[in-house]
Design brief:
Elements (H helix, E strand, L loop, with lengths): L1 H13 L6 H24 L3 H13 L11 H39 L23
């Protein structure tokens, strides 16, 4: 998924230049798919601030019901900000994955080898409690 999000960012930065209308249709479809993927991942990991941002991106770049702004000068900052957000989500997720890997490595190092662990034995518990007289 990381290469795809990087590709989305590069395509957004390429959208700054004067290109044929077919490219911008392709860009709408590509960014919508990328925003849906990021939206799904951020909602599942409860990162609501990124979810809101990528929901706005999904609405702006929606290919089914296009949102036309008619001026290139308006779309240029939107393309740049969108590209930066795609790169940012790449960086943030990598940082979180490294933290998770460090935590798992620490727990593996802290756990004792199997032969040094105490083995719990099955206990037989008498369900009948003796009555005190």
């Amino acid at each position: 998924m990381k290469p795809f999000l990087t590709f989305c960012a590069v395509c957004c930065f390429a959208g700054i230049f004067k290109l044929p209308i077919e490219y911008y249709t392709f860009l709408r479809i590509l960014i919508s798919i990328g925003a849906l993927l990021v939206l799904y991942n951020t909602l599942s990991s409860r990162q609501h601030y990124f979810s809101i941002l990528f929901l706005i991106i999904l609405i702006l770049f929606n290919p089914i019901f296009p949102f036309y702004l008619y001026r290139k000068s308006v779309w240029i900052p939107i393309d740049v900000i969108t590209g930066i957000l795609f790169l940012l989500i790449n960086f943030v997720e990598r940082k979180e994955q490294k933290k998770e890997e460090e935590i798992t490595e620490e727990t593996i190092e802290q756990s004792a080898p199997i032969h040094q662990r105490t083995v719990s034995r099955d206990r037989i518990i008498n369900p009948k409690i003796p009555k005190e007289e």
